[in-house]
Write a structure and sequence with these properties.
This protein is α/β, with parallel strands linked by helices and about 325 residues long. The strands form five sheets. Strands 6-9-12-15-18-23-26-29-32-35-38-39 form a twelve-stranded mixed sheet. It has a ten-stranded parallel sheet with strand order 7-10-13-16-19-24-27-30-33-36, with no helix packed on it.
């Protein structure tokens, strides 16, 4: 792809040669003459060997390398990388795949040792890789990618253009039990479902439990990292981002456009309002309502308050020493 074509694709302003052939996207550390990189700060310009650069609109770059000026270099780089490094879609059906005769599987690719249960429906263009287990009455849309060893339980619905990474489990029973005195615990029914919208990405090893009596829902465009636990009846809106090792207890609601850092813990029935940002390792207590803004800490609190409390904690050692000194002086005077 020539630099002139890249500039047109990104609606950017090209400075320098338009006929440089670019075949890959790369970091500035590893880019060579056939690669394009991006930078957001002028001080990162020196020392690279890239064949072209995506730069901010106000960047006055030396004409030693072609540059493409755009409003958001990182976003432009990500869009271009998807063109230069497209997913390798596959076609065919491995003979070891076991597909129930009542299932309607229009997927372009079904890998080795895949199983699909009764009355399930899978749309055109979908790629299902080796070892995937799909239960009965599952609905999967078009052009979804399901990586190896994913398990999708009965009755789950997954939209189009989703990506589900290796080892994810969707539709397992939720953790619901009722105490029966000395007899121990009785399992509460876990007979609901999971519904996942379009364009959702689910990381490796993530588990999304089915609703107890209703539905666990993931809205369209939401991106979930590796090793995330989403419990029964959780409702997650559209375009939510959830980082790794987060745990979300039952019936919690995350509204649209929330950002959740890594290792955040949610108590049950919490609500996070649209646009809220929760920093890593925060703890959201059961029933808590988190309003728009930036939040951190355990229990979670607005970032400014969290910073103030941290500053107070850091000053406790100095305060202790001052109190000791005051006690010593008082003791000397009393003696």
């Amino acid at each position: 792809m020539k630099t002139q074509e890249i500039a047109e694709f990104l609606n950017g302003r090209l400075t320098g040669g338009g006929d440089i052939e670019i075949v890959r996207a790369a970091s500035l550390d590893t880019a060579g003459p056939d690669a394009i990189g991006f930078l957001e700060k002028p001080e990162n310009f020196a020392g690279h060997r890239a064949g072209a650069l995506i730069v901010p609109e106000n960047f006055d770059a030396p004409e030693t390398v072609p540059t493409i000026a755009v409003g958001n270099p990182k976003l432009a780089f990500a869009k271009l990388a998807a063109v230069l490094h497209p997913f390798k879609w596959r076609e065919g059906r491995h003979p070891s795949a076991v597909i129930d005769e009542t299932a309607e599987v229009r997927a372009d690719f079904v890998g080795a040792f895949v199983s699909v249960g009764a009355d399930s429906q899978i749309g055109e263009g979908t790629n299902i890789f080796d070892g995937v287990r799909i239960g009965d009455n599952v609905r999967i849309g078009k052009c979804t990618i399901i990586h190896p060893n994913v398990v999708i339980y009965d009755g789950v619905t997954i939209g189009s253009d989703c990506i589900i990474h290796a080892g994810a489990v969707i539709g397992a029973d939720g953790f619901g039990f009722v105490r029966d005195g000395a007899a121990g615990y009785v399992r509460f029914p876990q007979i609901g479902t999971v519904t996942i919208g379009d364009g959702v990405e689910i990381g490796a090893g993530t588990c999304i439990d089915r609703g107890a009596l209703g539905e666990t829902r993931i809205g369209s465009g939401t991106k979930i990292d590796n090793l995330v636990q989403i419990a029964h009846n959780v409702q997650i809106g559209a375009r939510v981002v959830i980082a790794a090792q987060t745990g979300i207890s039952g019936s919690t609601v995350l509204e649209d456009d929330c950002v959740i850092g890594g290792q955040v813990g949610f108590g049950d029935h919490a609500t996070v309002k649209s646009g809220a940002i929760i920093g890593s390792q925060a703890g959201v207590l059961p029933g808590k309502i988190v309003r728009p803004g930036v939040w951190w800490g355990t229990p979670v609190q607005p970032l400014d308050e969290y910073k103030r409390q941290n500053a107070h904690l850091k000053g406790l050692g100095r305060l202790r020493d001052e109190i000791r000194e005051l006690k010593r002086q008082l003791k000397e005077k009393s003696d």
